[in-house]
Structure prediction request, 243 residues.
Amino acid sequence: MPEGPSLVIAKEEMQLFIGKKVLAVAGNSKIEKERMLNKKLLDIKTWGKHLLLCFKGFTIRIHFLMFGKYLVNDQKETVPRLHLQFAKGELNLYTCAVRLIEEPLDEIYDWSADVLSDTWDPASARKKLKALPHIMVTDALLDQMIFSGVGNIIKNEVLYRIKVHPKTKVGDLPPRKLTEMIKQARQYSFDFLEWKKEYTLRKHWLAHTRKLCLRDGDIIVKEYLGKTQRRTFFCNTCQVLYT
Prediction:
């Protein structure tokens, strides 16, 4: 599943279409595609894992699910979920969820929850976490209402960075570790963004999909944890299980 930084990159690659009129619409999504015909794409925003194509009076929300893909000025042989044709270029979206939003985005999205947003609010994240003392940190980091844009890779790497075991409950975290988790959720997201642009992301993974811990040489354990049963990689030796 694409994480927040990947969506930021997608937004940047699609900037050439902002202010341009949609000349043709196609695809197998079930939304009212004709709403976009002959309309200008006014802006492209992201909120966590949501890509938002903004038109006057409505927005098209794209969620790339587990295996979604986008192509700018290129096509796959399969039928896209959504195809937008512009005078100079095209945008094709595949294997994604497409939804039409009528409401103003500010009524739907808490922009301060997006870890890559200029309006990110760590104090708000801390307050939300304090209200969920009984959930594991592995679930907390994937909660998009708290850490919008954080995905499984970022979760695994953040917990390894701060030396916290993924089965630790939020309420059992020492205050300094809670602070570290909140800080690193944002910091690692920006690191992810930088490495992704450099095509060096995998080289920087310290826990995710690795076999041995680089700190102590112990085995990196893989388990499916939390309410979503996502792959979790961690070291039982240096990542402390707080109780």
